[in-house]
Amino acid sequence: MKNIVILISGAGSNMQALVRAAQQENWQQRYGARIAAVVSNKAEAKGLEFARAQGITTEVLPHQGFASREAFDQALSALIDGYATPGQPVLVVLAGFMRILTPAFVERYAGRLLNIHPSLLPAFAGLHTHQRAIDAGCKFAGATVHLVTAELDHGPILAQAVVPVLPGDSAAQLAERVLSQEHLIYPRAVAHWLQSA
Fold first, then answer.
1. Per-residue model confidence (pLDDT) at position 197
2. pLDDT under 70 in the chain at which residues?
3. Could you tell me the CA-to-CA distances from 166 to 56, 169, 177, 185 in Å, in that order?
4. What pLDDT was estimated at residue 87?
5. Rounded Cα distance, 145 and 187, in Å
6. Starting from the edge strand earliest in sequence, which strands make up the sheet with 33-40, in order?
7. Per-residue pLDDT at 135
8. How far apart are CA 120 and CA 140, in angstroms?
9. Nearest-10 Cα torsion for 142, 147, 149, 152
């Protein structure tokens, strides 16, 4: 069984889209995969309630309790690795996990650490992507699923979705349009990864 661990920090809408896809498409039968746990660095993350309601194990590991980013990432790795099965390492999926991961963590999960970013990478890595796209006069924006590397938001691209930037768009309006596409492409990209793994 391929176990998937999803990391969140908030509402986890992309996590919810992944859980629904896993249920509707029967990832367990189709790919021999299941969402084994949802882990958050924030106890108040609303996505944890959804995961629990779906019968998924949840874990909370507050980053404030650690002296360094490295110490937190080591503890997070130990938690994630607890969901590995013999001969089958865990797929780690970032779904609004608002922590920059250390190079050692990224290397540990190289090739099986996925993220979704709300821009058409390589454009607008980092934060405030929607406002930056509007300010730059972009006609199109979108979302990118990519493998995580040590360089922030620069790993190999697995999937992208494009949305128009409409006249008069606010960052919030554009974000909403992009998020609806994220919910479609992230489950597809994860399913494709599982199929080819």
1. 82
2. none
3. 39, 5, 10, 21
4. 86
5. 10
6. 57-60, 33-40, 2-8, 91-94, 113-117, 140-147, 157-164
7. 98
8. 9
9. 20
**117 among known catalytic residues:** yes
For residue range 105-133, what is the model confidence (pLDDT) as tens digits? Answer: 999 999 999 999 999 999 999 999 999 99
Q: How far apart are the C-alpha atoms of 154 and 36, rounded to whole Å?
A: 27
> What are the structure tokens assigned to 115, written together?
């993220």
Going from N- to C-terminal start, the domains of the chain cover 2-196
Q: Where are the alpha helices (DSSP H) in 54-146?
A: 69-81, 103-108, 129-135
pTM, two decimals, is: 0.96
To which H or E segment does residue 6 belong? strand 2-8
Task: Report pLDDT for 83.
Answer: 96
Q: What residue has token string 């930056």?
A: 132
Tokens 């920059």, located at residue: 100
How far is residue 60's CA from residue 44's CA, in Å, rounded to a whole number? 9
Q: Which of 44, 49, 45, 51 is nearest to 5 (CA)?
A: 51
Q: CATH number of 2-196: 3.40.930.10, 3.40.50.150, 1.10.10.10, 3.40.50.170?
A: 3.40.50.170
Cβ(182)–Cβ(12) below 8 Å: no
pLDDT of residue 95: 98
